From TrEMBL:
One of its GO terms (molecular function) is dihydroneopterin aldolase activity. GO terms for cellular component: cytoplasm. The gene is folB. Belongs to the DHNA family. It comes from Sulfuricella denitrificans (strain DSM 22764 / NBRC 105220 / skB26). This is Dihydroneopterin aldolase. The keyword ATP-binding does not apply. PANTHER family: DIHYDRONEOPTERIN ALDOLASE 1-RELATED. Its EC number is 4.1.2.25, 5.1.99.8. InterPro entries: Dihydroneopterin_aldolase, FolB_dom, GTP-CH-I_C/QueF. Keywords: Folate biosynthesis, Isomerase, Lyase. Pathway: Cofactor biosynthesis; tetrahydrofolate biosynthesis; 2-amino-4-hydroxy-6-hydroxymethyl-7,8-dihydropteridine diphosphate from 7,8-dihydroneopterin triphosphate: step 3/4.
Amino acid sequence: MDIVFLEEIKLDIVIGIYEWERKVPQTIRIDIEIGLPHSRGGESDNIVDTIDYGAVMARIRQTAAEQHFSLVEALAEHIATLIRTEFGAPWVKVSVAKLGMLRGVKRLGIMIERGERPSA
């Protein structure tokens, strides 16, 4: 299985369970690996034979602007579901992290995998 990846996506969004977290946007980092439903893009050199990562990014930005998430877990789950349902990915791995939230911790967050894991 071929995998498209998007690394170190940074978004400023309002996310959190505490009142102080919901007052100003926080920078989050998202890393995504997307299993392709087939591997024809390398042969055809045609966007219709792969997953358009530009369209994926547009949807992530749109949903992050329109919806409020309290937990990074919920945001990661939402992104994974969106990619699998709207873009037909059989497998996705999503990491969402808050940056500099705890003293001495560069980033904290969650990593999830959904769908059929690619075989080696």
